[in-house]
Design a protein that fits this description.
The chain has seven helices and five strands. It is of the alpha/beta class. The chain binds D-altro-hept-2-ulose 7-phosphate (I22) and zinc ion. Its EC number is 5.3.1.28.
């Protein structure tokens, strides 16, 4: 029988291991911030719990994380039930995200592809389509990074085989990115009164 303390210990071990990825996680945060500063947008894709992470992080960027500041361009490609059902029903679930990238992706955008296994077909297809269209691909994955790591410009691999622990690490990284991006864009005066929206 699992105990809460044993699960907590797994989580803490993993968080400790993530220290060695700090530089790469920071670099990915810079890539996302640069994209937003240059009027690009962040497209997110993931399945199940990772789909929830997509809309969670996109909401922090569009609305706010810690600062009242201008809106940042982010889209969770996991939320439009008409697109998701029409495409899966008429074509194939494996291309449900790549189709949206074909519609929305531009060369100065970033795809943030989230897959704990790194093996989900629709996520790999999204990454390959994004690369082909000139987007930068940041992958949040786990295990050994699966096939996804081969199709990403930056692949952050949480070294665990437990889906839940990987997801917990992913949202920690996603939250950290949101704060770091707000800090970086503030430092570059991207949120000064002349570049902000009505929420100021
Ligand atoms: O949240 C969980 C498990 O914690 C599940 O919903 C999980 O996200 C789903 O099984 C996903 O389909 C797994 O996909 P992936 O992370 O391997 O790409
Ligand atoms: Zn979950």
């Amino acid at each position: 029988m699992r105990t809460f303390l044993a699960t907590l210990a797994q989580h803490q071990t993993l968080i400790e291991q993530l220290k060695s990825d700090a530089e790469q996680i920071t670099q990915a945060g810079q890539v996302i911030a640069n994209c937003l500063a240059q009027n690009g947008k962040i497209l997110f894709c993931g399945n199940g719990g990772s789909a929830a992470d997509c809309q969670h992080i996109a909401a922090e960027l569009v609305v706010r994380y810690e600062q009242h500041r201008k809106a940042l361009a982010a889209i969770a490609m996991t939320t439009d039930t008409s697109i998701l059902t029409a495409h899966s029903n008429d074509y194939d679930f494996s291309s449900v995200f790549s189709r949206q990238i074909e519609a929305l992706g531009q060369t100065n955008d970033v795809l943030c592809a989230i897959s704990t296994s790194g093996h989900s077909k629709n996520i790999i297809s999204a990454a390959t389509t994004a690369k082909a269209q000139g987007l930068t691909v940041v992958a949040l994955t786990g295990g050994d990074g699966g096939e996804l790591k081969h199709h990403a410009d930056i692949a952050i691999i949480v070294p665990s085989s437990i889906t839940a622990r990987i997801q917990e690490a992913h949202i920690l990284i996603g939250h950290w990115w949101c704060g770091y991006i707000e800090d970086l864009l503030t430092e570059r005066s991207c949120f000064n009164p002349h570049s902000t929206s009505s929420v100021e």
